[in-house]
């Protein structure tokens, strides 16, 4: 189990990554760059949350692979739903 120092560092990183969204949209970045950077920041935040707060970093790799497969399947379903709406 991670100690308090680790959780504090992760919390600060999440705070910085969350502030990054504001920075990209409030300063003079192109809209497509802001969207792409925000998506990258979101993926980094998801990875930190899943690894440390959901304790996947301490689980066997098979469970991590199963979770990654589930997330990928949800991504595919979201794309399919978006395609069928058009």
UniProtKB/TrEMBL annotation:
Keyword hit for tRNA-binding: no
Entry's Gene Ontology cellular component terms: plasma membrane
Subcellular location: Cell membrane
Membrane topology: Multi-pass membrane protein
The organism's place on the tree of life at top rank: Archaea
Transmembrane segments: 7-25, 31-53, 65-85
Keyword Membrane among record annotations: yes
Matches recorded under Pfam families: COX4_pro
Main location, first listed in the record: membrane
Entry keywords, A to Z: Cell membrane, Membrane, Transmembrane, Transmembrane helix
Protein's name in the database: Cytochrome C oxidase subunit IV
Lineage of the species this protein comes from: Archaea, Methanobacteriati, Methanobacteriota, Stenosarchaea group, Halobacteria
């Amino acid at each position: 189990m991670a100690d308090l120092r680790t959780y504090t560092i992760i919390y600060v990183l999440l705070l910085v990554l969350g502030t990054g969204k504001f920075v990209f949209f409030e300063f003079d970045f192109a809209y497509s760059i802001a969207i792409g950077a925000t998506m990258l920041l979101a993926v980094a935040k998801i990875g930190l949350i899943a690894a440390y707060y959901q304790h996947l970093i301490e689980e066997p790799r098979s469970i991590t692979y199963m979770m990654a497969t589930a997330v990928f399947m949800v991504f595919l379903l979201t794309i399919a739903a978006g395609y069928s709406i058009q």
